[in-house]
Amino acid sequence: MAEYTHGGDILSAKARYGGEILDFSANLNPLGMPGAVRAAARAAVDGCVHYPDPLCRELTAAIAARDRVEPGQILCGNGAADLIFRLAIALRPARALVTAPTFSEYAQALGAVGTQVFSHRLYAKENFDLTERVLEELTPGLDVFFLCSPNNPTGRRVKAPLMEQILHQCGENRILLVVDECFLSLSDGAGPGLAPRLAENPRLLLLRAFTKSYAIPGLRLGYCLSADGALLERLSLCGQPWSVSGAAQAAGIAAMGCPRWPEEARKLIQTERSWLLEQMCALNLKIWPGEANYLLFQAPGRADLKERLLERGILVRSCANYEGLGPDFYRIAVRPHGENERLISALKEVL
C-alpha cells in the first residue's frame, strides 16, 4: 500500500504519540463544524436504511442558489478528490500540465490513466506565485491544465489579470482549464471566484468542497461546476451512483443555510495568520505570506521538525513529497489563538 502523505492522519499520529493530538496538518475552518451541520448529519443517520439520492437533487438546488449557477452546471461527489479521479478516467488526456508545488492528487490521478504530466515550476524567490511564464506552455496539443487558487501548499492566489490571460489562451487552444477553488472561501478577498465566467468559458471546470469551509472532511463532500453538460455527464458515468451519502447530503444542505460561516472564519484567519507570521519570523523560520487559512514555511536543515513536534502532541504537515520543495518545508493550518500559542511554544522548545 502506498504511503499516506496528506494531512489529517490523526490515527497514525495518536499511535506514535500515545495521546490526544493538536492537528495543524489539515487546513480546516478554524471555527470547526457549524452546529446546524452537525445536527443535520446526525438526524440523517435514521434515513440511512434507504439509499441516498443518487442525483443529490436538494443539495444541488441549494448549491445553485448559493453559488448563483444553474443546477445543470453542478455535479456532486465524494469530496473534490473523487471528482479529480473521475475527470482523469473520463478524459484520459494524453498531455496535462500542473504547477509545482501543488496538490499531489492531480498528478496521481492523471498518472493512473497513463497521462504524460508536465510540471510548471513555481519559485520561492517569487513567493511561489504563478507568472506569465506559464502562458508559454499553454499551447495546442495540451489537453488539460490543473490550477489551484489559492494554491496548496503555498496559499497564493492567481492574480486576476493573469487568470484572464489563462482563460483566453486555454479557450483559444482547446485546453480544459481545471481550477481548484476549494480554499477560496477561506482566503483573503474571497468572492464568487470564476463561477460567473462559466457560461462564456465552456472549457472551464471548477472544483469546490465543503471539507475545508465547513470542517467536515470525514463526511466527504465536494462538487464541480461546468457549463459543459456533456462533460459533467461523462464524469457522472465514471463514478458509482451513490457516491454522496445521505448524511453528507444533509450536512451540505445545512451548510448552505450557514452562508456566513466561512466569512466569520476569515476574520479570525487574517488576525491569527498575521500573529503567526510575526512569531515564526522571530524564530528565524522562512515563511511565505499566504492568502489562505494555512502557511508554508521552511525550517532550514530541520528535516526532523514534524517528529519533534509530534513528541509534544502537535501534528504539522511535512511538505517533503511536494515537487519543488524539500524535507525541511512544512505547512501549518491557522487555528484559534490558544492553539496557535501552543504551536509557537512547542516550536520555541524544539528550535
UniProtKB/TrEMBL annotation:
<keyword id="KW-0456">Lyase</keyword>
<dbReference type="GO" id="GO:0009236">
    <property type="term" value="P:cobalamin biosynthetic process"/>
</dbReference>
<dbReference type="InterPro" id="IPR004839">
    <property type="entry name" value="Aminotransferase_I/II_large"/>
</dbReference>
<dbReference type="GO" id="GO:0030170">
    <property type="term" value="F:pyridoxal phosphate binding"/>
</dbReference>
<protein>
    <recommendedName>
        <fullName>threonine-phosphate decarboxylase</fullName>
        <ecNumber>4.1.1.81</ecNumber>
    </recommendedName>
</protein>
<feature type="domain" description="Aminotransferase class I/classII large">
    <location>
        <begin position="21"/>
        <end position="347"/>
    </location>
</feature>
<dbReference type="GO" id="GO:0048472">
    <property type="term" value="F:threonine-phosphate decarboxylase activity"/>
</dbReference>
<dbReference type="InterPro" id="IPR015424">
    <property type="entry name" value="PyrdxlP-dep_Trfase"/>
</dbReference>
<dbReference type="InterPro" id="IPR005860">
    <property type="entry name" value="CobD"/>
</dbReference>
<dbReference type="InterPro" id="IPR015421">
    <property type="entry name" value="PyrdxlP-dep_Trfase_major"/>
</dbReference>
<dbReference type="Pfam" id="PF00155">
    <property type="entry name" value="Aminotran_1_2"/>
</dbReference>
<comment type="pathway">
    <text>Cofactor biosynthesis; adenosylcobalamin biosynthesis.</text>
</comment>
<dbReference type="InterPro" id="IPR015422">
    <property type="entry name" value="PyrdxlP-dep_Trfase_small"/>
</dbReference>
<keyword id="KW-0663">Pyridoxal phosphate</keyword>
<comment type="function">
    <text>Decarboxylates L-threonine-O-3-phosphate to yield (R)-1-amino-2-propanol O-2-phosphate, the precursor for the linkage between the nucleotide loop and the corrin ring in cobalamin.</text>
</comment>
<keyword id="KW-0169">Cobalamin biosynthesis</keyword>
